[in-house]
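re: that chain from earlier
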Amino acid sequence: MAQENEVFILPGGQTIVTPAFRVYVATGYKPSEKNIEFLKSLKEKIPEMQLVTFDAAKDNRNMLLCRGSFPVYGPNKTPFSSLMEAALNMELVASGVTNENSARIQATLDEFDFSSFGGGAWKMSATFSAPGKASFSVKNEYTFPVSFKAVTGCGEIMKAMETGIESFLSKVYSTPGFVALMQ
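^ sequence. v structure.
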């Protein structure tokens, strides 16, 4: 039997009851051919890339509220740090230049948020590190048009999540710190 409402407990103990049909769950991330081709072009500089592990301790949220009322989730209501880890590693593996047995690069998801007023924007930032190497941080904002109507606008936010992640990962790979950390 389908659930008619979802109840969310917010910080401070407040609750929101939302009709289940107003809950937005994004589809899975499909690796970007453009990002994969760029990673392949780095093979001379980085013969074997390491996979990345995102630390979920800092921010392990799996839901953001759109316009204060409508929950937006990643695929399968996965925590956003796990979503970013999977997306990044899928592209690294698809590039064919990973060494799955090497130590993993550590990452912390510093920001995973969106704006749905006055234009849509996915805002993502992360810090990457490995023992004995300089860490680097990347911040990206992917902007897109969004409707002023709540239901339509929140749907557009959800649909833009994948492209926002693709844009963020593209910036990660093209940051000089990425090559330095992978070498």
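The mean pLDDT is 88.
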